[in-house]
Write a structure and sequence with these properties.
single chain; Glucose Oxidase, domain 3; 19% strand
């Protein structure tokens, strides 16, 4: 290898951490509002968690000026680079102080090439929650999923009913066409279509060659098909519920205009809630939390709303005495309500790593070469340039590989990554996914120094179900998270079909003629005893090389009374108690068919309206 090639490799492995340090030093969000720390002894509503749903709920409830709202967040204020810069969010974030650092249990059926057969479960611990550190991809989810939520006994959650809540949060800034007319344009969350590069165009053309539908936009009434991507961004920076709901509302507290000035929303960060407090009538009357090293308690007059995420919400319920009696007794937690479903029904999208193609050098733009000081200065001054957009192409597709009654209901998602996993010698890639280094290097070693792309098939309607359970009665002890990946053979069958279709897609003329794409057809060493390409080979490959894609849901299941595993009703009220709701991705009876931020924000908007309705205030549903 040439000296220039060695330098290029070293730069590729080191550039991202150096860039992040530089950005933290140079980039400033000059308009960031100082968050007040004033705390009242009692509030009308307490919201736990400032993520995709919690920030929206707190803001919308604060619109009623005679209500006092407290928003509690365990994490602190994020650095400017994390919540501002779209470039960095296209890279998954290695473990850091903004993450709860959850790890799964050792998996019986999956993760065989992962350290301890365990996955990281990324959940944000910062103002804005996961919405401050995620990949910015905006996917509502298929019509069929929401209609199925309603069919399962949850009125008001069908596609037509929830669409107005998506539109309420959306501030779409792309071109208005018949294919994008479903978007809201006046909402707080900025949405931008990601420009399609040559790889993305080939991806969509290849899908058409394979007979798949081409979609102008992935968020319309029918999701099935190949399309580009929509990101949560505006004005050159990340758009998120905390930044675009809470922050403007807090700014009004300092307004010189008395008609705009507000004082009824208080936000307390770095405050870890230990439990919800109930009175003898099983009504939530407050919360206990730790702040600045002291245990504190604050009371609530009306309701506590838990929006702590798919892992945090069931954990808090369990520590509060709401959950399966046997489990609570085992950990010496006083039982308030025996609700067997708390922490069950855990679902996650599961994707297959390593389906990669090399291309002729120079045909894919180098995503790192433009990240110089001038580009950094351009972003800092104008919020434009390479730091204000995704590096490379990341289009998506949704297909149906059979096995369901509705052929328009997608069950496999394709995600194209325009960077090979060896771009940094596996330093970040293996750390993010917890892949063992030796199998990683063995399988990918021929790709070092190459250019190319990968296609990841993900199962988006898995049958496997997992759980979240307490390890001890200590609320600071992380819970036991067992996703039970690949426990159902049907998940293997669908992923195998997805792999075969992904390989056929990457081998279409759209990729071969334009990019000279060549599939990395190498037998995984751990599966060498199976005939390459057979069902048994791909099953072995999947059990070794498939991983979480960080889209968790379902652990506080929304369900009617006859469902024994239900936790909340269709108005998100927790069974067996009063004055307590859960509103986040944990209430999904079935995970949506895409990234979970968009539906979590929708849940926040709808939950706020339901709370207002239940307390006799006007909402979006009323004239």
């Amino acid at each position: 290898m040439t000296f220039e090639g060695v330098l290029a490799r070293l730069f590729g492995a080191a550039v991202l951490p150096v860039v992040r340090i530089a950005l933290m030093l140079l980039v400033r969000d000059v308009g960031f509002t100082e968050i007040p720390t004033h705390l009242e002894p009692e509030y009308d509503f307490i919201v736990v968690g400032s993520g995709s749903a919690g920030s929206i709920i707190a803001t919308r409830l604060s619109e009623q000026r005679d209500w006092k709202i407290l928003l509690l967040e365990a994490g602190g204020i994020p650095q400017a680079d994390t919540y501002l810069i779209p470039l960095l969010t296209a890279q998954f974030i290695p473990e850091n102080s903004y993450d709860w650092a959850y790890m799964t249990t050792q998996q019986k059926y999956a993760l065989k090439n992962f350290v301890g057969q365990r996955n990281r479960f990324i959940q944000g611990r910062v103002l804005g929650g996961t919405s401050s550190i995620n990949g910015l991809i905006y996917v509502r989810g298929s019509r069929q999923v929401f209609d199925n939520w309603a069919a399962l006994g949850n009125p008001g959650w069908d596609y037509d009913s929830v669409q107005k809540y998506f539109q309420k949060l959306e501030g779409y800034r792309g071109p208005y066409t018949p294919g994008t007319s479903h978007y809201g344009r006046d909402g707080p969350i900025g949405l931008l279509p990601v420009p399609k590069g040559e790889l993305a165009k080939a991806f969509i053309q290849g899908g058409a060659e394979r007979g798949h539908r081409v979609n102008e936009d992935p968020n319309g009434r029918e999701q099935l098909g190949f399309s580009g991507m929509v990101m949560t961004a505006k004005d050159g920076r990340r758009s998120s519920p905390f930044y675009d709901y809470i922050r403007p509302y807090l700014a009004k507290q300092k307004s010189s205009n008395p008609h705009l000035r507000t004082s009824n929303l208080h936000v307390l960060h770095s405050a870890t809630v230990l439990k919800v407090v109930f009175n003898i009538e099983k009504k939530a009357v407050g919360v206990v939390f730790v702040h600045e090293g002291k245990v504190k308690r604050v009371s609530v007059k009306r309701e506590v709303i838990i929006s702590a995420g798919t892992i945090g919400s069931p954990k808090l319920l369990l520590h509060s005495g709401v959950g399966p009696r046997e489990h609570l007794v085992l950990h010496n937690v006083d039982v308030i309500a025996d609700i067997p479903g708390v922490g069950l029904n855990l679902q996650d999208h599961f994707g297959v790593l390593g389906l990669c193609w090399t291309v002729r050098k120079g045909l894919i733009p180098n995503v790192l070469k433009d990240l110089d000081f001038n580009a950094l200065q351009e972003f800092n001054q104008y919020r434009t340039g390479p730091y204000a957009r995704f590096p490379g192409d990341y289009p998506n597709a949704w297909i149906n590989v059979g096995g369901g009654a509705d052929p328009l209901w997608p069950n496999i998602m394709f995600y194209l990554n325009s960077v090979l996993p060896t771009y940094d010698h596996g330093i970040f890639y293996s750390a993010v996914f917890n892949v063992k280094k030796e199998p990683f290097y063995n399988f990918f070693k021929e790709l070092h120094g190459q250019e190319g792309f990968c296609i990841m098939p993900e199962i988006i309607q898995p049958k496997s179900r997992g759980s979240v359970r307490l390890r001890s009665s200590n609320p600071f002890t992380p819970p036991t998270v067992d996703p039970n990946f690949l426990a159902e053979d049907d998940d293997i069958r669908k992923l195998t079909r997805g792999i075969r279709e992904a390989i056929a897609l990457g081998n279409t003329s759209a990729f071969v003629e334009k990019f000279e794409a060549k599939f990395h057809q190498k037998s995984l060493r751990e599966c060498i005893s199976e005939a390459y390409g057979s069902d048994r080979y791909w099953e072995c490959y999947i059990r070794h090389m498939a991983t979480s894609f960080f889209h968790y849901a379902g652990t506080c299941k929304m369900a009617p009374p006859m469902d024994p595993l239900g936790v909340v009703d269709s108005r998100l009220r927790v069974r067996g108690v009063r004055g307590l709701r859960v509103a986040d991705s944990s209430i999904m009876p079935q995970v949506t068919t895409g990234n979970t931020q968009a539906p979590s924000m929708m849940i926040g908007e709808k939950a706020a309206d339901m709370i207002k309705e239940d307390w006799l205030y006007p909402t979006i549903n009323k004239d």
